[in-house]
Amino acid sequence: MKTLLINGFEISSLGSVYFEDDDKKYVVIGDLHIGLEKYMRDQGVFMSKKQLPEIKKGLKELVKRYGSDTILIINGDLKHDFKKQGYEDAKEIKEFIRFAAERFRDIMLIRGNHDNYLINIADYLGKDLVDFVQTSRFFITHGHKSMILPINKHIILHHEHPSITLRDDVNAKIKIRAYLIGRIRKNKDYYVIVVPAFSYYSPGIDVLSAYYERDSLISQFDVEDFEVYGIYEDEIYKFDKLRKLREAFY
Predict the structure, then answer these.
(1) Domains of the chain and any CATH numbers
(2) What does the longest C-alpha to C-alpha distance in the chain come to?
């Protein structure tokens, strides 16, 4: 796992954000989409069950880097199927939360747009399911619904699954996960960090060609001026602003 420190927070090649605040350590991940393999199998598409083992592997790397005294924040979409709660989904989510609870100081669960039935599992495991978490310097929410955001804190969002598709001279393509990071216009001391999915099977939506939902929180910001940080083969690459990448590739 490679990391990059930006103005008091650290991003990683796994798709996480680490920061220290209020004398505590936090690491934020989101868009895990546990249960995706079963959902796709029910649609007639076979996917090997790699998602949960790869997520566990990623958690071990986070603990190795930041220590077991770190608080893990799950920023939405822990599960994939938002229409129903099946036995297999519940079993995997409980397994994941127990695995994480053994390795982190605490776990905080933020509601995402796929988490309609997660409240039942959260109650069973004695965890609260909230719409946001805030500390002195950070505000973390999934990003799928409109809300009033602070201008005096760094804002961490998921939901968009940002990625970029790169092309060469013969139009060969490669799609990589990416962060979008930009300053808050009304207070340039603080940043908005749009984080890629922690899911093994969710490379994301190409932000070079995507247009955002009106209710999505990312639409409140001038994302065109955000810097793009791509992830490829366990490395982090800083690209240009999103606007300039659009001009270069489209």
Answers:
(1) 3-249 (3.60.21.10)
(2) 54
